[in-house]
Amino acid sequence: MDKRFISIAFGILVVFSVAVSYTEESSVLKLAQTLFPIPCPTGYEEPIVKVITGILPSGFQIKRDNLGSLYWGPENQGSQLAVCTPMDEAGYFVSGINSQGYLRIDKAVNVPSLIDSYHLGHPMIVWTDKGPIEGVLALPSLHILTSDVRKDFQENPGLQLAFLDVGVNSETEAREKGIEMLDAVTPWREITMLADGKMSGHSLGLKCCMALVLDQANSFSVSKNPIATFVWMAQTKFPVRRSRPRSALGALRVSKEVQAKNIIVVDVFPCDVEEHRNLVVGNGPVLVYSEDKITRIGERIQDLARELGLPLQVAPDYSSSVLSPFSAEEKEVIGLFLPVKFEQTPSEIVDARDMEALDSLLSALLQEGRM
Q1: What fold does the segment set 3-89+191-368 form as a domain?
Q2: Is the pTM of this model over 0.85?
């Protein structure tokens, strides 16, 4: 276990607490709470990989690819099914430290500048070798800026004027605290429990999806019929240039690695997209498939939902950059997505009941073992 991971793990125990209103927590909810504080911006997935591998039961093979994705399943046996989920969030890194000790940050992947502006005036965390350091992302007082600069920022809000203040007075002080160029930076971690089983937090849907796959892997480990490989995909926020349909780099790499004939991708589904207003948080997981063609697995999932009385929503024409690389292969591919509101914002909302329903559907499918 390396020094950075020990520091991060210790810092998480000290810095974070999650207030939970449930009297009886499910295994998948507990796993989501465990994974939520762990930083995992694109290219900085190692801390969360170490946490996941520490939770996975022994007895099956653990592999990594050159992008950092994590594979867990039977050794030397072709799996009939691969269950895959992304594990990298849109995050930041330290791109500069000025003489006054203020930090500049930049994006690891391209996201709209408006999303960057959501974090202005809010706490952030720098993940250093010495542990996490708290700061606040701030702007110079707008009244001291020239009218042209102020107007440009108001029209194009983003990170161009922002400084991360960690409370030091010089570059030397910042470096003495352990801050270095390219250290990962993420928003503050806190889950807000809302009414009626809903939860909110930055990249919460992503962490719930990782927890869902991890929960299934834990259950699968005691099965006498090992049919599945479980994959946590790294670097899925990088689009492959000129790819049609749009494909994520990490997912494309995984699609070449896994040999399973059947693929289930677990990801988030943004419910506030205009063309999918009929799909809402709280109405169950979303079954995603392409080209208006449902697969045999997709049909079985719909049957299981009816048999078990579980809610299920359907999106037959949704385009997903983590699903499309698998669809290009001669395989049966579907997505079981977790509906979220306000995706990639600090206010991202997930319903615990959707997560439980998705977990139950995956469990029923794997227990059948008929792929």
Answers
A1: Aminopeptidase (3.40.630)
A2: yes
Measure the CA–CA gap between 85 and 93, rounded to whole angstroms. Answer: 23
CB atoms inside a 10 Å sphere around CB 29: 20
pLDDT at residue number 22: 37
Q: Are 39 and 184 in contact (CB under 8 A)?
A: yes
**Which of the pair, 8 or 172, is modelled with greater confidence?**
172
pLDDT tens digits, 176-225: 999 999 999 999 989 999 999 999 999 999 999 999 999 999 987 655 55
Which CATH topology does 92-187 take? Answer: Elongation Factor Tu (Ef-tu); domain 3 (2.40.30)
CA 154 to chain centre: 30
Q: Return the top range by mean pLDDT from 39-53, 243-257, 267-281.
A: 39-53
Residue 333, pLDDT > 60, answer yes
Q: What is the pLDDT of residue 21?
A: 37
**165-171 contacts, C-beta under 8 A, 24 or more apart:** 165/102, 165/103, 165/135, 165/136, 165/138, 166/101, 166/103, 166/126, 166/133, 166/134, 166/135, 167/135, 168/101, 169/100, 169/101, 170/99, 170/100, 170/101, 171/97, 171/98, 171/99, 171/100, 171/101
Closest CA to 358 of 303, 311, 320, 290: 311
Main-chain phi, psi angles of 83, to 5 degrees: -110, 115
Alpha carbon dihedral 362, 368, 369, 371, in 10-degree steps, equals -80
> CATH 2.40.30.40 residue ranges in the chain?
92-187
CB hemisphere CA count around 143 (13 angstroms): 0
